[in-house]
């Protein structure tokens, strides 16, 4: 994708604060950090969502996420993390190149949890939903 900013970062065409790399993924500091050490992990080849990734690229991204979390935990000593993906517009995806947010958290920082993203409980019973998904 010629105009994709995360492709350009992953291929070193534009500068970024890269903190770690693997064969297939790149981790760099978010330019608008929500907390100290807020990092994005992206695949080096373009993919919009997890559904567009090869199994190998998905596994590689997640190995790098683990490495980066360990590094942040060791060097910045946060009290916790939020780790997540915004998928499609409805899910808040702003750049159409999959990225995993690693957001270090500190006790009393005023933030919420994934439980505060949306409150839209289903009308259907859990049994109905289970039947649809299993
Ligand atoms: Zn891209």
List keywords for this structure.
5 strands; five-stranded antiparallel beta sheet; HIT family, subunit A; 19% strand; binds zinc ion; 134 residues
Structure description:
The protein is an alpha+beta fold and 134 residues long. It has one domain (5-133): HIT family, subunit A. Helix content is 27%, strand content 19%. It has helices at residues 5-10, 55-76, 126-133; strands at residues 18-21, 25-29, 39-43, 80-84, 100-105. The chain has a five-stranded antiparallel beta sheet. A hairpin with a 3-residue loop joins strand 1 (18-21) and strand 2. The longest helix is centred in the middle third of the chain and has 22 residues, at 55-76. The protein is globular. The structure holds zinc ion (ZN). Zinc ion binds next to helix 1.
Short description:
This protein is α+β, with helices and mostly antiparallel strands and 134 residues long. It has helices spanning 5-10, 55-76, 126-133; strands at residues 18-21, 25-29, 39-43, 80-84, 100-105.
Q: Average pLDDT, to the nearest integer?
A: 96
User: What do we call the CATH topology?
Assistant: HIT family, subunit A
What top-tier CATH class fits best? Alpha Beta
Distance between the termini: 36 Å
How do the strands of the widest beta sheet line up side by side?
A: 1-2-3-5-4
Largest sheet: 5 strands, antiparallel
How does the overall form come out from the CA principal axes?
Answer: globular
Low-confidence parts lasting 5 or more residues at pLDDT below 50?
Answer: none
Instruction: Determine the structural class based on helices, strands and strand pairing.
Output: alpha+beta
| Heteromolecules bound | zinc ion
Name the CATH homologous superfamily.
HIT-like
Radius of gyration: 16 Å
Structure summary, number of beta strands: 5
